[in-house]
Structures are given as structure tokens and as C-alpha cells.
Design brief:
The chain has 5 domains: 3-95 and 108-146, no CATH class; 151-199; 213-338 and 425-463, Ribonuclease H-like superfamily/Ribonuclease H (Nucleotidyltransferase, domain 5, 2-Layer Sandwich), CATH 3.30.420.10; 339-410 and 628-671, no CATH class; 477-554, no CATH class. 42% of the residues lie in helices and 12% in strands. It has 26 helices and 16 strands. The longest helix has 28 residues, at 448-475. One of its GO terms (molecular function) is zinc ion binding.
Length: 671
């Protein structure tokens, strides 16, 4: 029960409960009775707990102002309690510096509250008693600690944060567990920030990231500028991702996105035999230049031996990336994403036709040209394109000069189907993986560390899905695979491959044993028996043998067995070679090599910092820029028969949005 006391100077009787309060003639609230007790507390913790509970029950927050362990001159241990609003706020920022900055809307709870309690130890048995020095408060009760989190709630916050839960979801969960909890969203953010700062104390953001990569056994490379310690490029990959990459290295899909974290992020993905996309590696790059791409791909190359190199690499029309791939993986076939090419053709040619009917016919003919299965068919459809759309020379000139003349071997079926690509001729998979990643990261305002934590959780789930899918292929037999001709393949081949074989077997009646009418496309592109091969096995009543299925589909584990048994010996030989080179070098070279080794073995000893973000004076949004295709579909761009797509200014808003044009685009679904 609070008591209102009005002090009127010397006319009042002396009251020890307000001694030294400095209340003067203020109206104060007296809580002396609430904290007066004859109880002997068995420990210091019991005293602190009782005092805080009394404060909470009266709407007050009691804190420990200071404590003394005693010992010197037979001095007993003491502890002083005060109100959280006691004392006076002291500015910690220099006035001159503070004036230059924009003032924040901030305040203080300090109001000089005189409340003071003293706990005194009674002897050697750790017994304590509580004395009221000043029992008044110069403010009304306001229990601000009702918004504070308990230790249990903090532990819940940490666990949910590691599971990538959003602050609003954390707050909702806490309130569901305790209906009387008055925690606000601001408290959740503050606690998360304090825990993060406590974890990252003394270390820079880059050191924290490198430490986390090391703790989780990530494979990591980075390089910094010659004249500074600013990290220029960073390449890293999960150890399980390396195992998956070595098991399924045949097709890689690459895409470099910007605005994921204010820097270009090169994402390299692959595909398992169960058609699940996996992230092989990531690289934060300083710029989308050939030198940066070459460095990142060379790091990827070091993880692969001569027997597990990619045979097909799919990408967008990124010239620096194409040059780097040709330099690092010269034996791999380079494909361009045909879906992106079709979108670019649509975006470019949309303004060159009078209406949507002619544009739809043109896009239909273009897609049929891209899907040509023979060179004769390709030339025939190209001639038809010239004949039917001769009135649109700018559109024909664009598709020929930009795509067909130089790059047709990289996206037209007649040339792409000459190698084994397992049905992956577009970069849709890496686009899908990037979309998940962008949704997970949210925006580009996060740090390297927070970005890594989210990506790490995504990879852990990804690896689990892959392992489960491989296990299903080994243990579960689908009912539509019970044919006798598949008995040697069940449990030894991916279910995806079995589905393709079942679909191909439906062509047997129309194809028969004629290989010319079969075309054998599935054999060339997927490494699976084609229709006329299945007909031959049926004619002899023989099941399809396991050896006629490409090893890609038979790999149902992630075990890596290098064919070169002397791999460890080669590494030791390389180290001795480096040692001899170091001994033959001059003093400056030796010092440089030693610093590099020190950086690798003890990263925290190096003063590395993250690269500086390049400020943009025009666009400060964290969303990705629209592609030309997306701008074309939005009908917010202007086209001319000659000029390229031009976007409107950000500052100019159209008064009226023109009606959207409905355009049909053929999308090829990969098997």
C-alpha cells in the first residue's frame, strides 16, 4: 500500500525513512512499510529475489546500485538497492559531435528518485537482513520491467532466432505462453541486438563470419585488396554440398544476382539424380568482372578432380562469366538459358509489331525454331520465319544478329541435344534457388553474418531433403515400376530415371526397332535406353540391364571414391614443392607467403574488414531491378522499331496506366 506524504520543510517531525532523500517540498510516495521486514535471509540471492519481488508487486523496478564483498578491516559484505529511476542522466556523446548528427527522439527514465535500501551480512553463515534507508519515490509506480524478458523467454528467443523465426513470430509465441506478458516488439529487437553484440564483442563482422565458417567446417577462400585489409571476394561452400557436388558434378547452373546483399552474389547449383536442386557454392564478389568470376570458379575447380568435372554449364548471357567458364572449365559445354532468351526476344520485339496477334505468331515461330531437332528442320523453320515476318526486318535482324548467328549452338535443340545434359537446358533451377534465397534474406540491409546464418539453415534443410530422396529410391518401389522389364533397375536406379523409361516405353509400338524414327534423343541427352532399345529388350523378353543406365542415375549415395588413390601423396608432394620455393625466394617473398599462411591458419589475427557498400544516388530500394521482360509485360516502357527498351524515370509517374497486353509464351517443361 503506497502512502502519499507531503514534506513541509522543518515543520514536519523527523522521519528516518526520508533521510537524505532530497525530496524537499515534493509530493512523494512512501513505500517504507512494504520493504520493512524482520526476516533473516539465508543467502544473498534470497535477499535479492525477495526485494525484487516486493518491487514487482508494487509496480516498481528495484535494481542493485552497488555491492561490497567486505573483508578489509573486518568490514561486512553489503549491498545497496535503488530504484531504476534513481540518479541523473549523463550525456555520453560529445556535444560538438552530437550537434552535427541528426537528433534522435530519445529520453531518459532517470528522475533522481531517492529510494534506497541496504542489505547487510550478519556473519559467517551467509545470513542477511534488509534495512530501509529511504523508502520514498518521487514518481508514480510504472512497472517497466513487465516488458522485460525472463531467462526462459530469452532462451526461447535465441532458439527461435536460430530457426530463422521473425521477431513478430517470436513475440506472438512468448505472449501465447504467458497471457500477462507485456513485452513489446522493441524489446524483442533490443534483446536480439544485445545478445548479438555480446557474442561479437571485440571481433569485426568479417572475423565473426570467418569464425562461423570455420566452426561449421565450411570450405572458404577470400582475397583482399593489395593496399588494404578490405575483403574483395569471398567464396564458401558447405562440406556436405561438396560431397553432393562430387557425386553429381555433371551439370552446373550459374547465376549472379545483385542487391541480395549490396554486392553481386554468384550462386552455383547442381542437380541430383532425384531432380533436387542443391547449392554447390556461393561467392560474394566485388564486381561482375571476368577477374572476379575467374577467381571464384578457380576456387570451385580446386574441389574437383579430373574424374568429376562438369560436362555442361548453363548460364545467362553474361559475357564475363562465359569467358571465365571457358578459361577454368574448357572441356565443358556452355549452354544459354533458352527461356531467358525467349523473354529477351519478347521484351525487345514487343514494340516492333502492330498488335498482339502478330507478336504471338512471331513468338510461336521463334520457339518452334529453338526446339528444332535436326539441322534440316532448323533451316526450314528459319526460312519460314523470314518468309512470314519479312515485314518486320528489325525483329528478324535482332534475333539473328544477337542470338542465332553467334549463339545458336548454345540453346537450339539440334546442337544442345548432342551431349548429355539430363534435360537441364535452362537456368530455371538456379532462378528458383535464388528466389528462395532472396525471400529468406528479405532485403539487402543485413550483414554478412546474418546472411550466412539464413543461408546455412537453408542448406541444412536442403541436404536433408536430398538424403531422404536418395533413401526412398533405395527402399520404396512404386507400383507403376512393377514391370518385369524393370526388375533389374528397381532399387538401383533413381525413380526419376524409371519414370523417364516408362514414358519412353510408351513410344515402342509406334517406333519399333527403327532407330532412325526413334531419334535416340533420350540416349544422347539422358543416358537412358530409348524407345528402339526397349523394343529390342522386349523382343527377346529380357529385362533392361543396369549397365545401360548412365552412372548419374545409379548414384544413390553421397560417398566419394576418388579414382586416384595417390591423392594424399600428391598433396604432400605439393607442400614440399611450396617449401622449396619458399626457401629459394627472397626475404620479401618469404614474408608475403608467411603472412598468407598466417591468414589461413589464424584468421582472427588478421585485421580483415568487410567491403564498403557502394552508395547509390538514384535507387535506394532493396528490391531487385526488373528485367526487360518484366518491364515489357508491365507495359510501362516505350518501344520503337529501332530503339531498345527504355524505362521511364523514377521521378515521373504516368498519369494513366495503359491496358496490359496479353502475350502467349511457350515454356518448355523439362523432363
Amino acid at each position: 500500500m503506497e502512502h502519499q506524504v507531503i514534506s513541509q520543510g522543518s515543520s514536519n517531525e523527523e522521519d528516518t525513512s526520508t533521510e537524505g532523500s532530497g525530496a524537499g517540498t515534493e509530493c512523494v510516495l512512501d513505500y517504507t512499510n512494504e520493504f520493512t521486514t524482520d526476516e533473516i535471509f539465508k543467502s544473498r540471492d534470497a535477499l535479492v529475489e525477495w526485494t525484487r519481488d516486493q518491487g514487482n508487486s508494487n509496480g516498481l523496478v528495484i535494481i542493485i546500485k552497488n555491492s561490497d564483498a567486505g573483508g578489509a578491516g573486518n568490514k561486512k559484505p553489503r549491498i545497496k538497492f535503488g530504484c531504476e529511476r534513481g540518479g541523473v542522466y549523463k550525456r555520453k556523446i560529445d556535444e560538438n559531435v552530437h550537434k552535427k548528427r541528426r537528433l534522435r527522439s530519445s529520453g531518459t527514465k532517470k528522475c533522481g528518485c531517492p529510494f534506497l535500501l541496504r542489505g547487510v551480512s550478519l556473519g559467517d553463515n551467509d545470513e542477511w537482513k534488509l534495512e530501509v534507508v529511504c523508502g520514498v519515490h518521487n514518481h508514480h509506480a510504472a512497472k517497466s520491467n513487465a516488458r522485460r524478458l525472463s531467462e526462459e523467454e530469452k532462451a526461447l528467443l535465441v532458439d527461435m532466432s536460430k530457426s530463422l523465426a521473425k521477431p513478430k513470430d517470436i513475440l506472438r509465441t512468448i505472449k501465447q505462453k504467458d497471457g500477462l506478458n507485456e513485452t513489446t516488439m522493441k524489446t524483442i529487437y533490443n534483446v536480439r541486438q544485445r545478445l548479438k553484440l555480446k557474442e561479437n564483442v571485440v571481433r569485426s563482422q568479417m572475423h565473426v563470419l570467418l569464425s562461423k565458417l570455420s566452426d561449421h567446417n565450411y570450405i572458404e577462400w577470400h582475397r583482399s585488396s593489395n593496399d588494404s585489409n578490405i575483403v574483395k571476394d569471398l567464396f564458401w561452400t558447405h562440406p556436405v554440398s561438396v560431397d553432393i557436388l562430387r557425386a553429381f558434378p555433371h551439370v552446373l547452373i550459374m547465376d549472379c544476382t545483385c542487391k541480395t546483399y549490396s554486392f553481386p552474389l554468384l550462386e552455383i547449383v547442381g542437380v541430383t539424380c532425384t531432380n533436387i536442386t542443391f547449392s554447390a557454392a556461393f561467392a560474394y564478389l566485388d564486381a561482375k568482372n571476368e577477374d572476379n568470376y575467374t577467381w571464384a570458379l578457380s576456387r570451385l575447380r580446386t574441389m574437383l578432380d579430373e574424374h568429376c568435372l562438369p560436362t555442361v554449364i548453363v548460364m545467362d548471357n553474361d559475357l564475363p562469366l562465359m569467358t571465365a567458364i571457358h578459361s577454368i572449365f574448357p572441356s565443358a559445354r556452355h549452354f544459354l538459358c533458352r527461356l531467358h532468351i525467349s523473354k529477351n526476344v519478347l521484351a525487345k520485339c514487343k514494340g516492333m509489331f502492330e498488335g498482339k496477334d502478330q507478336l504471338e505468331k512471331f513468338m510461336m515461330s521463334w520457339n518452334m525454331l529453338v526446339l528444332s531437332e535436326t539441322e534440316h528442320e532448323y533451316l526450314k523453320r528459319l526460312a519460314e520465319l523470314d518468309y512470314y515476318f519479312g515485314r518486320y526486318p528489325h525483329a528478324l535482324e535482332y534475333v539473328k544478329n544477337t542470338w542465332l548467328n553467334e549463339y545458336k549452338e548454345r540453346f537450339v535443340s539440334v546442337w544442345t541435344d548432342t551431349c548429355m545434359h539430363f534435360g537441364h537446358t535452362t537456368s530455371n533451377r538456379v532462378e528458383g534457388a535464388s528466389a528462395k534465397l532472396k525471400q529468406l534474406l528479405g532485403n539487402s540491409r543485413g550483414s554478412f553474418e546474418t546472411s550466412w546464418e539464413k543461408i546455412h539453415s537453408l542448406l541444412e534443410l536442403q541436404h536433408l531433403d536430398i538424403k531422404v530422396s536418395l533413401e526412398k529410391c533405395l527402399t520404396i518401389i512404386q507400383h507403376n515400376f512393377m514391370h518385369d522389364e524393370l526388375k533389374e533397375l528397381r532399387g538401383f536406379v533413381s525413380t526419376v530415371a524409371l519414370n523417364i523409361i516408362v514414358c519412353e516405353s510408351k513410344k515402342v509400338n509406334s517406333v519399333g526397332l527403327d532407330s532412325s524414327s526413334c531419334g535416340c534423343t533420350i540416349r544422347r541427352t539422358h543416358g537412358l535406353p530409348c524407345a528402339h532399345e526397349i523394343a529390342e529388350y522386349r523382343q527377346t523378353s529380357s529385362p533392361i540391364p543396369l549397365y545401360c543406365v548412365d552412372p548419374h542415375w545409379r548414384k544413390l549415395d553421397l560417398l566419394y571414391s576418388p579414382k586416384n588413390s595417390d591423392h594424399a601423396t600428391d598433396i604432400i608432394t605439393q607442400m614440399y614443392t611450396i617449401l622449396h620455393q619458399w626457401m629459394d625466394s627472397n626475404e620479401d617473398t618469404r614474408r608475403h607467403i608467411s603472412l598468407k599462411l598466417e591468414e589461413i591458419m589464424n584468421m582472427e589475427s588478421m585485421p580483415l574488414t568487410k567491403p564498403k557498400e557502394q552508395p547509390s544516388r538514384i535507387d535506394t530500394t532493396t528490391r531487385c531491378n526488373l528485367s526487360a521482360f518484366e518491364l515489357a509485360l508491365s507495359c510501362r516502357v516505350s518501344h520503337s522499331p529501332v530503339d531498345t527498351v527504355a524505362t521511364t524515370s523514377h521521378s515521373e509517374k504516368p498519369k494513366r496506366r495503359p491496358p496490359k497486353m496479353k502475350v502467349t509464351v511457350i515454356v518448355v517443361i523439362e523432363s
